[in-house]
Amino acid sequence: MIKCPKCLQIDFVQKAGITRGKQRYFCKDCDYHFTLPTPSATTENKRHHQVTIMDIAHQLGISKSTVSRALRGHSDIHEGTRKMILDLAQQLEYQPNPLANALLKSRTNIVGILVPEFRHYFFPTMIMGAQEVLSKAGYNVMICQSDESYETEMANVKALMSSRVDGLLVSVTAQTNNFDHFRAVLRKEVPMVFFNRVCPELETPQVIVDDYEGAFQAVEHLIKQGYRRIAHLAGPNSLLVSRLRLNGYRDALQKHGLPLDPDLIIHYDLSEEKARIYANYLLSLPQPPDAIFAINDPTAIEIMLVAKSRGVKIPQELGIVGFSNDPVSAIIEPSLTTIEQPVWEMGRQAAKLLLEQMEHPHNVIHTLPTRLIIRNSSVNLSP
Amino acid sequence: MIKCPKCLQIDFVQKAGITRGKQRYFCKDCDYHFTLPTPSATTENKRHHQVTIMDIAHQLGISKSTVSRALRGHSDIHEGTRKMILDLAQQLEYQPNPLANALLKSRTNIVGILVPEFRHYFFPTMIMGAQEVLSKAGYNVMICQSDESYETEMANVKALMSSRVDGLLVSVTAQTNNFDHFRAVLRKEVPMVFFNRVCPELETPQVIVDDYEGAFQAVEHLIKQGYRRIAHLAGPNSLLVSRLRLNGYRDALQKHGLPLDPDLIIHYDLSEEKARIYANYLLSLPQPPDAIFAINDPTAIEIMLVAKSRGVKIPQELGIVGFSNDPVSAIIEPSLTTIEQPVWEMGRQAAKLLLEQMEHPHNVIHTLPTRLIIRNSSVNLSP
DNA sequence: AAAACTATCGGGAACTTTCCCGAAACTGAT
DNA sequence: ATCAGTTTCGGGAAAGTTCCCGATAGTTTT
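Predict the joint structure of the above. Result:
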């Protein structure tokens, strides 16, 4: 029968229930509960595991502490031992496990980047700028795109936070009106920097360009070219960029004594379809505009395509100016007048700011300059 | 003087060296070494730490195991206790620490994506496709770009591996001739899937499109349009796509009895500058080509810009066909004839393949179809 | 009422690394 | 030889989870 592992007797052993499908026994003599050892576990199929600090220590017959010291470049170690360890580590292709380190220090060395999209020129370039300084500082990057959806943005913030990123670089969606998910980030004291699509009501650093000045120059340029009825296809009001560029547009009109026609200002959600719809709407107005200042280049390009398809001549019948100097704007015909902004540099600045934040938090706003690039879409030949 | 903490006597205590700036003592009576306890450590500045499973357990007066079971949806738990735990977890905004889990299971739930660049349409779109299926499967994504540099690619592979990604999605650079860094990945048994810019000599799954067929159709289309002297601005020979598209080009010429002029085939490194240089070179040949088939759309667009700047009329004097249906190709004038490939779908397929790999490794090659899109850049009006 | 069982729960190991501190083996000085 | 100091190393705790297994209390069967 069943032998008690304690007293090696079988007389006093009786069944004592089943746990997880396994029979348990009880020895009345020893007052001892036990189960039979599982017959498996003989395979010894120790997972093909990465080589650890302990492997090195064992092979060298020393302690893990010493190996750690050697690897970390610590001082309390004999030069010979260090060399020995370093050699073996290289030979075994030892790679430190960042997970253990992260768990210990509760720092992942990962920063999250959250952007609305990266199909166009703007955000990829910005990300590249940020990645340049971050990877130099030893950080990896986790990129999420919210696809201009508020829900996706929230989900991404949550995912990034649960991944325990050390910091966050974010540009909000056109939909975002509620910023509670970002407040949650700040509550957990995770450093965060906004860029381009910022969030002024939150006490956190931001990197933007001089949107007001850029818009002002753009519209003034149109006015100087003789355009008089200038529309503005603007972004949603929730975005600070939209508001700033709208202000630049307004003030430029005002400065030159042009009336501000509310019908010529359209806020939209930055989607391609809506851009086309509103472009068509503007051009089919009883009194259509003779120029349009678009919130950004993709929008301007959509407008151009619509105008062309309607046979509206650019720049003679319709002047167009965009914003951000997307490479496509130089390729398209006629080439698109636009506002250049230092996109790569914005990414760099944002990353630098984030690194500073991780050292010691403080609140700053970086504003970078813009520059008007005059091309053909706005040079009115017959004013 | 100094009192021995063991016998509480001071008579037998004497100095016994200094370690890390701290005086040590020795009690001859007790044969006991000791140092004075540091006066600090009174601040109790326990780092603002995230709420853990232990916090919940303590507050509820239960064990961490029980909490873990409740959170993980295990069975061995009372319904009431589970509810209690779940409620408190929600109230405390508990988020499981993925680091601990990753360390335990040695799985990070992160996959690395390595692409040559993401400035253009192609790779961002592919990444989005991949991200769609990966995030649905609970994986986060770490994106690296090698910037068409072999060294950067190696560094990125190393970084991704040291981050302990669970899998790798990669598209190699135009420079990559040596694949040892990828062999190292396979040696460590980290699943890897190549897409687009694949590596046929490695035993690992790949996702490509039917490059040969696409190229063949493109060139045949040009021939049918009456073009006779068709050049090919090809990618580097190290890339399988380059070789396949070159073969398609060759066979199309051969099928229609056109001579294969080696001078009209140029391999280049896919950089913008070189594209311009070679486009100029081709167009200034004593016997310039009357059409060019470009390895991809960005290349074709560069060629168009060069041709335009030289006053070469497209498509009358020069037909152009690209590859990959970049959105810009529809915008540019004349619009660019190109080969459509299911980019988003490639990303999805690659990700799916990777997920399968992580389950049980096997070697497959997915080839997706292409489709010719005829636009204006190649429709010869006066053949 | 003893025997066998079920439903819950707790305790510890393990994952890998770093850090703190104690300890041994030396080197000089007295 | 004794004492003080230096150099080098080892042991253990900690980080947050999950998993394995043993251990109760209560319930049903014999």
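Residues 41-46 of chain B have pLDDT under 50 and may be disordered.
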